[in-house]
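Subject: sequence -> structure tokens, single chain

Hey, anyone have a minute? Need the predicted structure for the following. Not urgent.
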Amino acid sequence: MSDTSSAAVELAIRKPCIPPRGETQGRLDQLSAVATEIEPQEHYSLGDRIEAVVDGHPDRPFLVYGSDSFSYRECDARINQYANALVARGVKSGDVCAIAFENRPDMFFCWFALAKIGAITALVSYHLSGATLIHVVERTSAKVAIVGEECVESFVPTPEDHCVPVWLVPDPEKPAGQEIPARFDTSFVVDVDRASRERPGSLLRSGIRAKDDMLYIFTSGTTGLPKAAKYSHMHWMTCGDVLEETIDAAETDVFYCCFPLDHGAAATSVISTALASGASIVMRREFSDRKFWGDVGKYGITVFQYSGEVFKSLLKRPLEPRDRTHSLRCMLGSGSTTDNWRLSIERFGDLDVFQKGGAWWGSVDLLRYDSDGYCYFVDRVGRTQTEVTV
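Reply:
Had a minute. Here:
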């Protein structure tokens, strides 16, 4: 009998192991307490959290991209260079800056640098162009757009009188396929490289409260022009705090980030949870079902964020031995079905799958498909809704 068939038989005879109601409620009460730890009026921001986590885990790897690995200390130094260069160019607390990158370390450095000086980041999808792009940039009242070279083609056709200043960040892997117009400021990265690696003064963000806006993420625009979902410092950090507790994340975990960071799912559930727990993040520009298990094995990935279609694409791949000999322990995402959950357990072994319901920007329900054969719903602040055996 094949390993897959054996697993299916084992699951068929295994009885669901539903914990006592009191144990479940105690767990959810704990999540509720975590969700209310940050007070809206508190002078506490993402910039403060970044520096606290760096000080607690300076030498642990934070970002891994291809063959490059950046420790928390190294990331902080580069973030500081971006922050100091931004301040020197006149960006200040409360300003909005639009940024457009594919998944690569410079996107993190720029985003977190803006948080350190109290500015707001508007994540712009690199798929946007024309009137839609103009709408997104103008809707946020962005002071400047910081654009990776890989996204230049989206910004080039935009009429100059409808576009804010554009500061360019080179991309050695994907250089622009056309001449870059003179209005694109290519000296920004020179300023960054020359800037101090010391932390910008915390007074730059001293007026920021936890309830203040930190991040704007736009909807896909399938029902009209894209609309901005606002994340406060508190909202974004609390997402990570609650998920850290929910999935028992630890500094030894390795998160896999392979979906666009300009979408709320990757920008919140993956990044905020990894940062809250002092874990590592492996970045890939885009998801590849062919390379997925190779990356899991190469980097020791333990937590993966999925979408329903991605889940199905993994299940459609040919069977191979590493399907069950891997480091992955947990998946979180949306769009899966109970049938796909069952198939994943049969094929990939004991995994906990945490599924989010509703829109990614709201206070949504979390459905846990457990490897012991049951599931239950938990909302964002931890109240039990129902328990069901599957």
